[in-house]
Fold each of these.
Amino acid sequence: MSDKMKVILDCDTGSDDAVAILTAILSPRIELLGVTTVAGNKEINFTTDNTLRVVDMLRSDVPVYRGCATSMVAKLLPNRHGDYTGMTGVKQDKLDDKGEVISYHHDCLPMPAPTSKERPEHGVWWLIDTLMKSEGDITLIPTGPLTNIGMALRLEPRIAGKIKQIIFMGGGFKVFNATAASEFNIWADPEAAQIVLTSGVKTITMVPLDATHQANFTREDEAELRAIGTPLAIAVADLVDERIVAYNAYQPQELADSAPIHDALCVAYLLDPEVLTDIRHMRVDVDISGGFADGQTICDTRAYPDRPENCYVALGADRLRFSRMVIELIRSFR
Ligand code: RIB
Ligand code: CA
């Protein structure tokens, strides 16, 4: 009987999702049952291909399942996401000295093209099937828009009682990125997020930008990765560099010349709860009105909230504890 923690990751792989996946695969304390992919940072073909690139680079047999290619309903309203210019939207694209668009995520990760294939089953049905057959001992770690999880909960609400806990990267308490009031994962599919938050899953932890922006990787971390010198360490160093360049261009950080690796912090928290600090139990709901605050995580901090608390919200993080853990796991892989 393995005492490893059973985990499912749901990712829109992207550069920081990639670090979350490798952290889970490289940890001897995690049994990664599978990764479901979702559209978000990039469209589904790229997020699935990138997920396979990470799994193959680690010579892992973790199965990858393609999930939903678009949000549940958000794109039905013509102007809801129409003028999206957040982060690297058209109006904000900046060019580097080579004339290339500066971006947090490129279509393809700086890793070899995948040789393995995604599994034939749709990610949402695999999630439902796996959770319903489980002993209720699976931790779900979504690091992209919550479309797959929202769809799974709508198709089979009983999975709410089978999920041990959800630790998701998303939302903002006072820090936002996609718009002045929202964080990208939630903004991309607000309805899915609200379904998850009102699903009745007994333990939900939200890792918002307020926490992830306190756990940035720096140029020193990049240099340490390059000094390790393995193909994996160099690839992650390249991701850190890309992200620092993008954050300097679009979201300059308090810690100069650094960048958050948002998604990996969720996996790190499972391995070492002390990487997150100032965790508060709150009522969190998502604005789905399609207005200026569309996708905002409304965190009710009042002593007597209108509805019962449903989420643990992390407002801080221990940067060194986090970066040490990830770098040492990468160092361990040859
Ligand atoms: O807002 C940051 C989040 O959006 C991260 O998960 C990043 O990968 C993107 O999905
Ligand atoms: Ca992500």
Note: Residues 231-250 form the longest helix (20 residues).
Amino acid sequence: MSQPTKTHSPTIGVFDSGFGGLTVLRSLLPLIPGAHYIYLGDTARLPYGSKSHETIARYAVSSAKFLHEQGAELLVIACNTATAMALPEIQQSLPIPVIGVVQPGAHAALATGKHLDPSQDRVPHLRDGLIVAKVGEAPPSNAAHHVLVLATSATVQSHAYTHALNALGLEASEKACPLLVPLVEEGWTNHPVTDEVLKIYLTEALTSAPAAQTLLLGCTHYPLLEPAIRRTLAAIGHPLTIIDSADATARATAALVAQHFPSLDTTRKPTYIFYATDSIEKFQHLGSSFLGQPVAEVNLIDLGG
Ligand code: DGL
């Protein structure tokens, strides 16, 4: 008689500079229910988006190592800034698979471009849920599709999104929006001041990139501003298709989990544990709006400066 296959519930670490990465965890839960999740929000050292490459890499690597020490068998860097600035450093410092949000976000933009123009239906090569170009092969020919990326100053300075989008044959423009994270942190997601700030940023960005068709939200906080962004785009007469990388990252992570943990127990309900490096109350309060459900118990940890 054949033995039943032994199932495994992998432990997935999810890291962000704050609670914005909970939008990625929110997308992961229905796709990979049979996992145990450890989420770390490095809230004491947030924002990462205005800091230097060295500082971001140091913070991100120490946070990633903490999650590995807690038992993470696979790590999702849910922070755009940490992915853009330090993905190679994080990958080199851990012996487990690590995935970021930039490549999946670029892939989502490519899929949107095909939707806007179905004649552009070449499929990129995927490995570990990431886009891989074959040496000597020309990128897909949908260069007419122009993606405008909104992100933190550090992410824009890295040009990680432009590189990832260009590698897929997409045109890209980037706009740093440093005031948006503080406005979301303040809870001003539906506020006239935020609408005014968005109007200035989007008008400037679209003056430089009038051909943009897709708006990629390249920061964990921006999905919470989507209604305000939509409203502002309508007001300035420039509607765009809006995408974010949370869902695309969750799908790429599911592919990576299927590859590394083929005996995943899909009947199990997800379990999770939250860690933050600053105010537990603020994490619980703001985190709930990012996760879409109450964030009950949060553990305070100290990762130093
Ligand atoms: N998590 C960051 C990102 O996605 C935004 C917040 C910060 O600047 O730390 O870029």
Note: Residues 181 and 221 are 6 Å apart (CA to CA).
